[in-house]
């Protein structure tokens, strides 16, 4: 209250106070909490983790795919499960948007988790929250840091292909555009670098890195040569051939950053983080100290999970993640 009585003494103060209250009201993520389902679904964490665990045992890459789904959900109108909606004859969702088409995967695993959760707590837990927990579990199972996942998000009744096209950064991005795309959703440059460390797991398709391995000079030559063997130069040939994003794709470690320091980033956007610019020092820090990376990564994941959630009576708790109720 003292703050308000001081600022209200002049006109500028009134504007400040109004701006401050808009900020506080606008911050709906204040309603998310780690114990949101502790009474309504006490087995939730156990249930999610056991399904994620068996999916990763079948295929280690699935951990990477689930983590990426959460990112692609959160960057498009907030973490609201919108990416999980299937297209229908009368509805165009996000699955066929440019960043997701032939690329986003793991939807069956999300279905399996959701069905397991519905068995014990029907109609209680949102798909958006299931994805947030599955992303954390994937990181932990593959050897990365743990964090308390904030919960209480509700599911969107809409999706936006246009927003998916325009909000998720493409691999052709330069450093300034990466900084500004993350800034647009309230994430700092440091958050952006830490979150890019997700590329310590998983794979990319030839079409995502072709121009880099044939045309760019800030790429270590033996890696360029090795990647060219499974990614032919002509557009359209071998587009979906896969390559790992770092040398240890099934372990969540800081090898991705060691790779960047050695000019071994696979995507153009990866190497932008260590190319003589303002983020070189952050990359060096993460490359030298896995504990700093792990801790910054966990903080940034919590921040990303706070992007514009639907709460209260907004949205719904979907029964099936693929369609609105
Ligand atoms: C900084 C901007 C980013 C760009 C430009 C970018 C771009 C990409 C691209 C092009 C791929 C390969 C997709 C394909 O070829 O099918 C990929 C894979 C991946 N991305 Fe990112 N990404 C970024 C940030 C992030 C963030 C913030 C996360 C998670 C928090 C993330 C997690 C992943 C994971 C785990 C994979 C591997 C997925 C799999 O194997 O299924 N990325 N990313
Ligand atoms: C999104 O991108 C895809 C692929 O480039 C394109 O086919 C589609 O029309 C775009 N959608 C919108 C709504 O702009
Ligand atoms: C490399 O750059 C040249 C000249 O800009 C372009 O014509 C060619 O398509 C590029 N190659 C690849 C594989 O992107």
TrEMBL record:
Q: Which cofactor does it need?
A: heme b; Ca(2+)
Q: Which InterPro entries match?
A: Haem_peroxidase, Haem_peroxidase_sf, Peroxidase_pln, Peroxidases_AS, Peroxidases_heam-ligand_BS, Secretory_peroxidase
In this chain, substrate is annotated as bound at: 169
Provide the binding site for Ca(2+) 2: 200, 246, 248, 253
A single GO cellular-component term from the record reads: extracellular region
Q: Which residues form the active site?
A: 72
Which residue numbers delimit the Plant heme peroxidase family profile domain? 31-325
* Site entry: Transition state stabilizer: 68
Keyword line: Calcium, Disulfide bond, Glycoprotein, Heme, Hydrogen peroxide, Iron, Metal-binding, Oxidoreductase, Peroxidase, Secreted
Give GO terms: molecular function aspect only.
heme binding; lactoperoxidase activity; metal ion binding
Subcellular location, record wording: Secreted
Which Pfam family, giving just one, matches this sequence?
Answer: peroxidase
A GO term (biological process) for this protein?
Answer: hydrogen peroxide catabolic process
PANTHER family in the cross-refs: PEROXIDASE 52, PEROXIDASE 72-RELATED
Function of this protein? Removal of H(2)O(2), oxidation of toxic reductants, biosynthesis and degradation of lignin, suberization, auxin catabolism, response to environmental stresses such as wounding, pathogen attack and oxidative stress. These functions might be dependent on each isozyme/isoform in each plant tissue.
UniProt lists the family membership as follows:
Belongs to the peroxidase family. Classical plant (class III) peroxidase subfamily.
Q: What name does the UniProt record give this protein?
A: Peroxidase
């Amino acid at each position: 209250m003292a703050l308000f009585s001081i600022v209200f003494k002049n006109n500028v103060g009134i504007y400040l106070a109004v701006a401050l209250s808009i900020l506080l009201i606008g911050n709906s993520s204040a309603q998310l909490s780690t114990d949101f389902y502790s009474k309504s679904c006490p087995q939730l964490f156990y249930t999610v983790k056991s399904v994620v665990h068996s999916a990763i045992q079948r295929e280690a890459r699935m951990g990477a795919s689930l983590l990426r789904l959460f990112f692609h959900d959160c960057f498009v109108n907030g973490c609201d499960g919108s990416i999980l909606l299937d297209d229908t004859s009368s509805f165009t969702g996000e699955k066929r948007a440019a960043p997701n088409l032939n690329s986003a995967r793991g939807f069956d695993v999300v279905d399996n988790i959701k069905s397991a959760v519905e068995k014990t707590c029907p109609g209680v837990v949102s798909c958006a929250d299931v994805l947030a927990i599955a992303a954390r579990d994937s990181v932990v199972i593959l050897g990365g840091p743990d964090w308390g996942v904030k919960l209480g998000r509700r599911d969107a009744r809409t999706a936006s292909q246009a927003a998916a096209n325009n909000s998720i950064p493409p691999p052709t991005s330069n450093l300034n555009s990466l900084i500004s795309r993350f800034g647009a959703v309230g994430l700092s440059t440091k958050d952006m670098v830490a979150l890019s460390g997700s590329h310590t797991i998983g794979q990319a398709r030839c079409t995502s890195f072709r121009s880099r391995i044939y045309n760019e000079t800030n790429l270590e030559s033996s890696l360029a040569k090795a990647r060219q063997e499974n990614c032919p130069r002509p557009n359209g040939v071998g587009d979906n051939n896969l390559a790992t994003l770092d040398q240890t794709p099934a372990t969540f470690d800081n090898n991705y950053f060691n790779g960047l320091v050695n000019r071994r980033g696979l995507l153009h956007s990866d190497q932008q983080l260590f190319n003589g610019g303002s983020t070189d020092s952050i990359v060096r820090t993460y490359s030298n100290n896995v504990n700093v990376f792990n801790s910054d990564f966990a903080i940034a994941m919590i921040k990303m999970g706070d992007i514009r959630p639907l709460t209260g009576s907004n949205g719904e708790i979907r029964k099936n993640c693929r369609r609105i109720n």
